[in-house]
Write a structure and sequence with these properties.
globular, 0% strand, mainly alpha
Length: 80
C-alpha cells in the first residue's frame, strides 16, 4: 500500500466496516474480512484509482454490489 494513501484508508475503512456490521449483522472480524478480501479494497489501496474520493457511504454501496453480484459499477465521474 502506498504510504500517502494509508491515512485516508485508515479513516474510510471503519465507516465501511461499521455499515457492514450493522446491515449484515456481522462481527468485527467478519466485516473486516469481507472488506479486506474484496476487489473494492484492492482498488482502494491503489492510489492511482482515486476510489477513496468516493467516501465511505458510496464505497459501502459499491462493496454491497460486489458482494451480491461480483461486479462493481463505478459512478460515471469516477475515472479508473
Amino acid at each position: 500500500m502506498n504510504k500517502n494513501i494509508s491515512p485516508v484508508i485508515a479513516v474510510i475503512t471503519p465507516g465501511i466496516i461499521n455499515l457492514l456490521m450493522e446491515n449484515r449483522s456481522l462481527t468485527l472480524a467478519e466485516a473486516s474480512g469481507l472488506l479486506y478480501n474484496s476487489q473494492l479494497y484492492e482498488m482502494l489501496e491503489d492510489e492511482k484509482t482515486k476510489v477513496w474520493r468516493l467516501g465511505y457511504p458510496l464505497l459501502y454501496d459499491l462493496l454491497e454490489e460486489e458482494l451480491t453480484t461480483s461486479t462493481i459499477t463505478f459512478p460515471e465521474e469516477q475515472i479508473l
